User: What shape does this take?
Amino acid sequence: MNIIKSITDKILKNIHLKMFKKISYKQLKFNKEDKILIISPHPDDEVFYCSGIILNNMIKKNITVLCLTNGKNSLRKKEFIKVMKLVGIRDYNILNNMEGNINFEYKIDFSLYDKIFIPNLNNTHNDHIIGSYLLYKNFEKIKKSCQIYSYEDNGTLNSPTHYTNLSRSIKMKIKLIKIYKTQMNSKFNFLDHIISLNRYRGTLINKSYAEFYKIFTKKSFKKKFKI
Assistant: This one.
C-alpha cells in the first residue's frame, strides 16, 4: 500500500510541476540591418497586432507593410496611409483586392527579408488564412535564416514564444487604432478587445501591456502549415 501511495504521490507531483511550471517568453529583438515584412490581411491588422514592431524607431526604415485588401475602399485606404505616414513607414502597399476575394498578382521578393510576420495560423478568417498561404506559396524564395512569426490576431496564440513591450507606447497604439474610424463604428468593440488582450499579455511578463508572437523556422513553418 505504501509503495502505491509513493508512486501516486510522485505522479501527482509531476503533474503539479508541469501545470505550474513558469513559462519563459523572449523579448522580440531586432538588428538595425534586419529587413522586416508584415503581411496584413486588412487595413488595421498591422496596428491591432503589430504596433510593437511598427513603433520601433530603430527598425521602421526597414519595415515593409503589405496590406492585401481594401485598396478600392477609399475610406479604409486613407486610414491606412494616414497610419503609415504617422508612424514614419515609407515602404507600404495596399492592394485592390476586396475582402474575401484575394488574388496573388502582386509580386514581392520574399528573399529580401530577415523577419516575416504573418497572421495566426489558427485563425479561421479566410483573408487571414490566405495571408499566411501567400508566404507558404513562396516558401522556396525565403532565406534559410529567415525567422517567421505569427502575430496574435482574433484570438490568442497557442504557445507563444516572443513579445514586444508596449508599456511606453500603448497610448500611441490607441491613437493609431482610433484612426480606423470605419472599424470603430462596428458593433464589435475592437479597441476594448485588443487593449484588454495587450493588458493580459503584459501581466505574463510583469509589464503593463504587451503583444505576443510565435516563432517558426522555415522547417517548422512548412510542417505546421496545412492547406
About this structure: The longest strand covers residues 63-69. The chain has one domain: 32-224.
